[in-house]
């Protein structure tokens, strides 16, 4: 005796199949990734995956058959170490979600087709297969949003640290300044930590507030250092000797030029000695296309680039380069935010190096940190090398002369 539900198999039907080269295992991974978004509890997800694994993998790609789980409810409940009633609730919920449809014989049994009848009774996954394209789109959307949230968090971390460094310097040079008091009050109004539940919009608002404070503090600092009282239009150091050449190496000792510049700045200098010979427009020119995309975005219509733009753009590139949050945070702590940003710029630009392309951006950033601890990190040399490569080949000269600027090699560090 049949139930009042129709059987699952219509021999004349073409059943939905997985698109492209997708297999059953790909759907299991998809559902695991979307568990929270779909509102599936861990126990219910386990039940769904157990049902899927009790189907034939070939049925998910064969339009002539339906992907059906025939295991009896009592047996499946025992396998999952739960009651039959709990499993019935799971099945009902999965039907409501549009993941399965149920067809049973009158006594509730499930069975595969036999010779006398081609009909199937069980849990059909045709509804889920029909939704696969939409589910993949949902996962991609959620991943983009997660990456955006992560990048904004990393930007906020870098900007907050840059602001703290600026305040430390201003407290030493202008401790009684009313403007310093205003900056400190702005910092006190910020949350002490970023809530994990913050949306991208909330993080972006927080980032914009910190960035504005960093720019205000930087302008105040520059006014205090400029005899004319006019703020600097870029972040070049006072020492700007451009006649000295540097090897494109991050593993050698700091050049004499960079060392002299560092002596004129605090150890955690806000204005990096590594940019003493470059304007922001030159740094923009040697950046990768992806870095320039973010620089254009964070500049937000302003005519000139500033330190904050490079720090923010580098933070946005960190997730895209596959660099871990911990590596970025360590670079901020050890190198200072601006030097960490320059390190990301160098690593990113050298992914397409003609001789020694960067294969592991995160590993190289960790190497830069170790070199810095040993006093052997030469970001200036690498920036010069990028400038030289950007200029391209030169005309051939007499025998023994350099005929191409591409001879500069990125360091094997």
Task: For the structure shown, list the relevant keywords.
mainly alpha; 413 residues; disordered C terminus; 54% helix; Arc Repressor Mutant, subunit A; three-stranded antiparallel sheet
Please provide a written account of the structure.
With 413 residues, this protein is mainly alpha-helical. It folds into three domains: 24-124, Orthogonal Bundle (Arc Repressor Mutant, subunit A), CATH 1.10.10; 147-232, no CATH class; 233-413, no CATH class. The protein has 16 helices and three strands. The protein has helices at 24-33, 35-38, 42-53, 73-80, 84-96, 126-173, 178-188, 200-225, 256-263, 280-286, 289-299, 307-320, 325-335, 337-349, 361-373, 379-391, and strands at residues 68-69, 101-103, 122-124. α14 crosses α15 (361-373). The longest helix has 48 residues, at 126-173.
Could you give a quick summary of the protein structure above?
It contains 16 helices and three strands. It is mainly α and 413 residues long.
Please provide the ordered H/E string of secondary-structure elements.
HHHEHHEEHHHHHHHHHHH
Task: Please state roughly what percent of the residues sit in beta strands, choosing from under 5%, 5-15%, 15-25%, 25-35%, 35-45% or over 45%.
Answer: under 5%
The helicity comes to 40-55%
Low-confidence stretches: 1-12, 114-118, 228-271, 394-413
Number of helices: 16
Mean pLDDT: 80
Name the structural class: mainly alpha
The main pleated sheet reads as: 3 strands, antiparallel
Query: Could you give the order of strands across the largest sheet?
Result: 1-3-2
Count of strand segments: 3
Tell the overall outline.
elongated
Roughly how many Å apart are the termini? 75 Å
* Number of separate structural domains: 3
Output the radius of gyration.
30 Å
